[in-house]
């Protein structure tokens, strides 16, 4: 269950319990009122009945009032004289329905069964009628009379049912509303979590400068965002330091390398003839290693300065021209390796980019295609374009790369086979450099291979860099 | 010919001094900018080789002082930075050429010779061996008065070999000079051989290579006939 759902349910649950308690209180408050009313009515009826008896005994009026009552609100009235234990008066209902005797000064609720055919009090099919009973001790004309008054609570029962129904419906609706609102509120509260998640998912060494938005307040989320941002600051700082260190180190290596190279060159080109063959071989091997190291240092510098860049100085130019001139240079190299080169390009491939950098990138790709080839092999270069992109593929025969290794080929210092790489020279940074350059151009580079048969590199580049930032930085 | 070499790196300074002295140049060295200026104001030089990155006063500041004092000695800047901005700045301040570390001995000597030729009174921009002549300005090559058409790469190879006349030029420095940094030139020896073969054919140097000689395991050389 998501945190959002949990918060929503929790809030809704708490709200439900609160409104349930409130409803119970309301219910009892509301229930009390009609009881009070009824009790007052019963009391009035008791006194009225006494008055009626007094009038009857004085012979002034007949029993018309109780008849009128009978139709609508039949009261159950029984008056007796406790002294003589004699019933002074009872209403028609009291004659029909036998209700328990209630002690004077108290009240009770009693149910009895009254058949509907006998008296219709609006009772339901169970024929059970519930009465509210009260008994009063009222002095009248020098004697003490006990008046027990009752009234069926059919209407009251209906009212209670209505009240309960109303409360339940209200509770259901308010709970539903509560769930919806709390779900919405939970969403709002958790919104910063969402942006934190997105940032963490997308962040890599290439966009380490991204930060979370921080509000003004000092709440927990802002604090968390601030903490994450300072963590990213530290990461970025150490990342930059590491990169700068690599750059500086490579840079520092240049001067000693120059000295070494000059010294070896000097010996190789002057006194070499007089050396014994053992020294000659050693010297040439040394020379090879110095040259390799030089290449490595140059490529490292190149790559780390590319890493420092986040934009390019683009201009409009024709990639076909660039590729053809590269091919002219590499054709001789390829021929020397007994590799055939075929190039099929549209007349023009116009794009926005930095010539020098793309030259370097494709140069590295051509270089690989020829070096990691086989005797009598082929290199095929092809290009095509759409409205927005252009694609160049460089395919070559050769040992290829196992599928599991393909993701690694663009890594720094990755080489398919250590033994082969020594024979071929390469710094192991060629593809990493090419990839970085293509990325700076907002393009994509992919490699496919069938081991033992062929390898194909596909480069796709957007034709226009307008309105797009490279999205790469640090 | 007197050359002042300015670099804060002692080992490189000694190496350069040794190399140039073996080529019969007269060498003075300075290990920082102030030292360099002192020497420059005392003695006239034919060429200054100046490192950019130096403590206290860097190469660019030295260059500025030199040019402000109207000393027009040619200056070859050396830098460890492969940064195009430094190059532009150096050339703007009046440097005559620019070399990024690390560089080959052949490249350095060729540049130095080109600079010295340009500045000396010898106005004819000609490089020559036997009856083969190469004009470095008009980029024309003739043999016995007959014009030879060369590709830019072939011209560049011949020019480099001629600048290094009587020295052995390694295959690698030659390739590096002609193709520059973008190529991973390691282990490309047979590639160079093809170019040399074509060049020999064009300049009528067939049959054993009497003009461009191969030095086995190292590279090539053009020698004046003894």
Characterization of the model:
The complex is a heterodimer of chains A (474) and B (226). Chain A has 474 residues and is an alpha+beta fold. Chain A has helices at 3-58, 64-72, 92-96, 154-202, 220-270, 277-308, 319-336, 355-371, 418-424, 430-440, and strands spanning 76-81, 86-90, 107-113, 128-140, 143-152, 315-318, 340-344, 350-353, 378-385, 389-397, 444-450, 454-462. In chain A, the strands form three sheets. Chain A has a five-stranded antiparallel sheet. In chain A, strands 7-9-10-12-11 form a five-stranded mixed sheet, with helices on one face. In chain A, helix 5 packs antiparallel against helix 6 and helix 8 packs antiparallel against helix 10. Chain A is rod-shaped, with a radius of gyration of 51 Å. Chain B has 226 residues and is α/β, with parallel strands linked by helices. Chain B has helices at residues 10-22, 33-42, 59-68, 84-92, 105-119, 152-163, 171-179, 189-202; strands at residues 2-6, 26-30, 47-51, 75-79, 97-100, 126-129, 132-135, 140-143, 146-148, 168-170, 212-215, 219-222. Chain B has a five-stranded parallel sheet with strand order 2-1-3-4-5, with helices on both faces. In chain B, helix 2 runs parallel beside helix 3 (59-68), helix 6 (152-163) packs across helix 7 and helix 6 (152-163) crosses helix 8 (189-202). The model of chain B has no long low-confidence stretch (mean pLDDT 86). At the A-B interface, helix 5, helix 6, helix 7 and helix 8 of A face helix 1, helix 5, strand 10, helix 7 and helix 8 of B.
């Amino acid at each position: 269950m998501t945190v959002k759902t949990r918060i929503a349910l929790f809030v809704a649950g708490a709200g439900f319990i609160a409104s349930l308690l409130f409803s119970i209180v309301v219910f009892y408050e509301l229930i009390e009122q009609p009881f009070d009313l009824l009790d007052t009515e019963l009391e009035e009826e008791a006194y009225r009945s006494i008055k009626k008896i007094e009038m009857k005994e004085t012979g002034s009026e007949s029993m018309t009032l109780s008849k009128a009552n009978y139709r609508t609100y039949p009261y159950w009235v029984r008056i007796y004289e406790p002294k003589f234990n004699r019933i002074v008066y009872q209403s028609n209902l009291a004659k029909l329905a036998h209700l328990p005797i209630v002690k004077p000064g108290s009240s009770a609720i009693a149910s009895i069964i009254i058949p509907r055919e006998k008296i219709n009090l609006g009772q339901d099919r169970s024929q059970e009628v519930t009465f509210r009973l009260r008994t009063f001790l009222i002095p009248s004309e020098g004697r003490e009379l006990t008046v027990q008054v009752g009234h069926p609570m059919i209407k009251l029962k209906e009212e209670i049912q209505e009240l309960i129904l109303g409360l339940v419906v209200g509770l259901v609706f308010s709970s539903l509303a509560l769930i919806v609102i709390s779900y919405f509120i939970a969403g709002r509260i958790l919104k910063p979590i969402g942006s934190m998640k997105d940032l963490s998912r997308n962040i890599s060494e290439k966009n380490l400068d991204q930060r979370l938005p921080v509000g003004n307040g000092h709440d927990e989320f802002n604090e968390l965002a601030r903490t994450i941002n300072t963590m990213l600051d530290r990461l970025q700082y150490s990342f930059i330091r590491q990169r700068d260190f690599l750059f500086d180190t490579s840079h520092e290596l240049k001067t000693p390398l120059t000295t070494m190279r000059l010294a070896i060159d000097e010996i190789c080109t002057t006194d070499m003839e007089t050396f014994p063959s053992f020294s000659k071989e050693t010297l040439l091997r040394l020379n090879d290693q110095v040259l390799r190291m030089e290449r490595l240092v140059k490529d490292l510098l190149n790559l780390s300065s590319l890493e420092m860049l986040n934009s390019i100085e683009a201009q409009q130019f024709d990639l076909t021209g660039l590729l053809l001139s590269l091919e002219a240079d590499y054709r001789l190299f390829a021929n020397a390796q007994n590799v055939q080169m075929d190039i099929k390009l549209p007349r023009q491939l116009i794009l926005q980019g930095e010539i020098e950098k793309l030259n370097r990138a494709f140069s590295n790709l051509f270089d690989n295609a020829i070096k990691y080839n086989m005797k009598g092999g082929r290199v095929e270069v092809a290009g095509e374009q759409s409205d927005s992109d252009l694609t160049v593929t460089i395919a070559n025969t050769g040992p290829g790369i196992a599928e599991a290794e393909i993701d690694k080929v663009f890594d720094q210092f990755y080489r398919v086979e250590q033994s082969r790489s020594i024979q071929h020279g390469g710094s192991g940074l060629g593809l990493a450099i090419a990839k970085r350059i293509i990325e700076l151009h907002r393009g994509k580079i992919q490699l496919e291979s069938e081991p033992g048969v062929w390898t194909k590199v596909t480069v796709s580049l957007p034709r226009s860099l307008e309105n797009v930032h490279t999205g790469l930085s640090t | 010919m007197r050359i002042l070499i300015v670099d804060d790196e002692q080992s490189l300074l000694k190496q350069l001094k040794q190399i140039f002295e073996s080529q019969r140049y007269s060498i003075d060295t300075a290990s920082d900018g102030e030292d360099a200026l002192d020497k420059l104001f005392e003695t006239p030089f034919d060429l200054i080789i100046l490192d950019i990155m130096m403590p206290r006063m860097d190469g660019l500041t030295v260059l500025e002082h030199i040019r402000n004092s109207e000393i027009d000695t040619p200056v070859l800047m050396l830098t460890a930075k492969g940064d195009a901005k430094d190059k532009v700045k150096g050339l703007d301040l009046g440097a005559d050429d620019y070399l990024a570390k690390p560089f080959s001995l052949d490249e350095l000597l060729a540049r130095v010779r080109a600079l010295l030729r340009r500045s000396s009174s010898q106005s004819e921009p000609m490089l020559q061996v036997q009856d083969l002549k190469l004009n470095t300005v008009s980029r024309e090559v003739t043999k016995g008065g007959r014009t030879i058409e060369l590709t830019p790469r072939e011209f560049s190879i011949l020019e480099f070999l001629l600048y290094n006349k009587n020295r052995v030029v390694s295959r690698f420095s030659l390739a590096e000079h002609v193709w520059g940094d973008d190529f991973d030139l390691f282990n490309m020896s047979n590639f160079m051989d093809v170019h040399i073969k074509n060049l020999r054919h064009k300049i009528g140097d067939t049959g054993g290579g009497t003009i461009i000689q191969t030095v086995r395991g190292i590279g090539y050389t053009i020698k004046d006939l003894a």
